[in-house]
Amino acid sequence: MRATHILIVCVSLTACRTSSLGACASDSDCSGGAACDPAQRVCVATDAPAISSVAVTTSADYTDPQGRAFFDAPGSPLSVSASIAGQAGVDASSVCLRISGETGACLHPGTAGSGGTYTFSLPRPAAPSDGTTPLQFTITAASPAGHANTSAAQSVYFDNQPPAVSVAADSTPYARTFPDGGSAPINVSVSIIDPTGVVSPQLLSGSAIVAPASSDGGVYVFQLDPRDAPAGAEGPYAFHVRALDHLGHDGGADATRVVDDKAPAISGVQVYKDVPDGGGVTYPAAVANTGWTGATFVYSDTVHVQGTITDQSGIGSATLRLDGIDFDGGVSLGTSRPLGCAPGSFTCPFAIDVVLNDAGSAFHTGASTFDAGMTVGNVPAGMLQVTIQAQDTAVAYGGTAAPHAASNATAARATRLLWQQTLAGAAVSGLAVHPSGDVIVTMDGGTGATVHALAPDQPVTRWSVTLAASLPADGVTGTAAIGAGDATSARVYVASSFGDLYAINANGTAAWTRVTTSSNFAVGPAVMQLDGGVDQIVVPDGVGGGNSQLWRGTSATDVTSVASDNRDFQAAPLILNGSVYFATQNMAGTTTHLTKHSINPDGTFGTVTTPTTNGGAPWFGLLTDGTNLYAATRPATGAGVFTGLDPSLTPLPGWTSTAIASALTAEPTFGIDGKLYGANLAGNVLTFSPATGDASPFLTLGSATPGLTSLQGSDGHIYVPRRTSLFSAYEGNQLSWTFDPPNAILRFATMDCAGRLFTAAGATVYAFLSDDRGLADTPWPSLRRDSRNTGNAGATRYGMRTLSGCTQ
Hints:
Layout: H1 13-16, E1 34-37, E2 42-45, E3 50-56, E4 62-63, E5 69-72, E6 78-85, E7 91-99, E8 111-112, E9 117-122, E10 135-142, E11 148-150, E12 154-159, E13 164-167, E14 174-175, E15 186-193, E16 198-205, E17 208-210, E18 214-216, E19 219-224, E20 234-245, E21 250-260, E22 265-272, E23 280-282, E24 297-298, E25 302-310, E26 315-325, E27 331-332, E28 337-338, E29 347-355, E30 369-371, E31 378-392, E32 405-415, E33 417-422, E34 427-433, E35 439-444, E36 451-454, E37 461-465, E38 481-482, E39 492-495, E40 500-504, E41 510-515, E42 526-529, E43 535-540, E44 549-555, E45 558-563, E46 574-576, E47 579-585, E48 592-599, E49 605-609, E50 623-624, E51 629-632, E52 640-645, E53 659-660, E54 669-670, E55 676-679, E56 684-688, E57 695-700, E58 711-712, E59 717-722, E60 726-731, E61 734-739, E62 750-751, E63 756-761, E64 764-769, E65 801-802, E66 805-806
Parallel strand pairs: 5-12, 14-21, 22-23, 24-32
Antiparallel strand pairs: 1-2, 3-6, 4-5, 6-9, 7-10, 8-9, 10-11, 10-12, 13-15, 15-19, 16-17, 16-20, 18-19, 20-21, 22-25, 25-29, 26-27, 26-28, 26-31, 30-31, 31-32, 33-64, 34-35, 35-36, 36-37, 38-39, 39-40, 40-41, 42-43, 43-44, 44-45, 46-47, 47-48, 48-49, 50-51, 51-52, 52-53, 54-55, 55-56, 56-57, ...
C-alpha cells in the first residue's frame, strides 16, 4: 500500500518558529520533556521521562496549621519518593535528587523500585536551621537518549534552634514591698519567637514558676513578684524566662530587675569645727576662759559635717537637720537642708556647714548643765543631734513611690557659755553695754582697777581704769551709766562708793574727775542731755545724818548739789519729763519716802516733792512706762508695798491696795505684754497690771532661790537671776536653760544687740548666747531701763529690738 505524504508549508518564518511548546533559544527555555529545536527555535516534545508524585515519606516532627511540615535536625536523612516514567524508558543512573545550590556529580542518587518508583535519601542540614528558610530540592531524570526532565522545586522545613527569647530591659529600682508588707507585681515584657510556635512559656523566679499574664503576638507579659527577692537586700534580682517550640527545643534568657529592700547607707559622718580626728565628733581644743572646754561646741559655732551616702538603686533625697531639745526634753526638729546629692546617684560624698544657733531648732536644756570646772560652774549645755536623712528611689510597679529611708543621728554637746573672765576685786557691781560693743564692768571693793571694758565676744580686756581720786582703789557700789554718742564718743560715768564722780572716754582715758564733799555714792547715776546735747549725770548720795545731797555734773568744773530729804542707799535715780525721782531712807531704813526734784533747763535742781507716806522699808529704784511710775519696798522678810504713782507721786486711782503679801526682791521690769514682772520673797514671779496692780502668778521658783530683777528679751524670753547662785532663762513660763555659778549671782543681767547676755557672779563676768536679738521693745525691759543704764525714760532707746532693728 502506498504511503501518503503530507507536505506542510510554512507560510511565515514566525509561524515556523513557534509551537504549542513555546519559543526557545536553548533547552533551558523549555519545560520538562521538551527540547529546543535549534533550527526552528521552538520547543518540541522529547522522550524525557515524566516526574510526578514527589513526596517526603518520613513523618514530619511537626506540621503547622498551614500544613507546613517541620523536621528536627540533626538526625537520620529523610526519605523522599517520586514516580518517574517515560515512553522511551528511564536511564536509572540519571535519576538524582539535588539540593538547591548543589552542582557537579549527583550526591543523592535515586534508587529504583517497583512500578517506576524511585526513593531518595535527603540529609538533614548540619548548619543551624531556625525553620524560617526552607531547604529546596528537585528530582531529575533522563531517557536513554539523554533527554532529561526536572521536577518542580520542593520545600522542606528544618528547625534545630530553640525559641528566641528576649527580655525587655528595665533599670527602674522597684520596692520589694510597700510599708504595709504588700507588694505590686512587676510586669516583665518578653519577646518569644519561633517559626514552629511557642509552647509552655514560663518565668522562673526562685522556686516559683510563673505563667504569662497576657500575650500579644510574640510578646508575653509575666508578673514578677518582687517578694521573691531576698529581704533586706538591694540590687539586681535574677530570674529566667524559658519556652519550648513544637519540636521540643528549650530556649530561654536570663534577666534581672533591680529590687530594693534596703535603705541607703550613711557612713563616715564627721562633725567638727576646725580639724576632724578621723570620725564622729571632734570638739574644738580647750580654750581657757571660754565655752570651748574640749568636750563642747559653743552654741554659735559653725560646724562642718561630712560623710557619704550610698545606695545601689540610686539616692532620691538626702538632707541634714540639726535637731535640738524641746521643753520636755524631746527632740526639737531643725530645718532640713539638702546635701546636694544628684538624684539617682549611687554614691554621694557630702560636706556642709551648719551654724548651731541658726538651724531652726530649739535648745532648751532646762535644768541640765555641764560641769565646766570649779572656777566656772555648771553651764547650760546639752546634746544637739546632727541628723542625716536619706531616701532611695524605689517605686512600686506603676510608679507609686515606696522609698526606703535611712537616718543617722550624731550627738554633739553644745554650751551657751561664750566666755567668762574673773577680775580683781570683791565682786562685780554693775554691767553696761557701750556703743562700741564693749561690756563696761564696775567692781565693788576693787583691789586694783575698778572699771573695765571687756570685749563682748571673747575674754579680752580692752581697757581698765583704777578709780583713785580718793583711795588707791575706789570701789563702785552702783552701776556705770553711759552717755549719748557713738562707739568713739559716748562717755562712761561712774559714782564711786567714796563720793567721787568720774567721766571716762570711750577709749578708757579720763574725761573728767570730781572729788565731791560726799563720802558715799551707793547707787549709780542717771544720764540726761542738756540743751546742746551735753551729758549731765544725776545721782543722790548715801550720806546720812541729815547731810544727804543730790548731785549733778557736766564736767569737773560744773558739779553742784542740793540738799536731799534723806540718804539714798537703795534707789538709783530715774529721770522723767524734766524731773528726777528716787527714794530716801533714814539710817536704819525704817523710815522711807519717795522723792522728786524738778530739773531746770540749765540742769540745776528746782523744787522738791517728798510725800509724807512712810514705806516702812527701803525702796528699790523706780521705773516708768513713760507716763506713770512704779515703786516697791524691799523688806528683808514678809509683806511689802508695791505702788503705782502719777508724776506728782500721787497713787494711781486704780491701785486700790499697794500691800502685797510677799515683798518683791528687786525692781520689776516691763514685759512685751505691757505688764510688770516682779519676783517676790516667796519664790514666785508675778505679773502686775500697770493700771490696777492686780497680780497674776507667772513662775514658781521656790523660796530657797527667789528671783531678782528679770530681763526681758526681744523674742519673748525672760532671764531671772536667782538667789543666791542660780540664773534661769525662760521662754514664756517654761524653763529654757539654767546656769549655776560657784559664787553669788549679780542681781541683774544685760544684753547687747547680738543677743549676748552678760551677767556676773562674784568677781567673774559671764557671757552667754541667748535666743534673743537684744532687749525687748518695752518702756523698761531691764534694770536702769536699757543696756546703757541711763535710767532716763526720755533717752534714745539703746539695745532694744524694734521693728526697724536693734537700737544702737
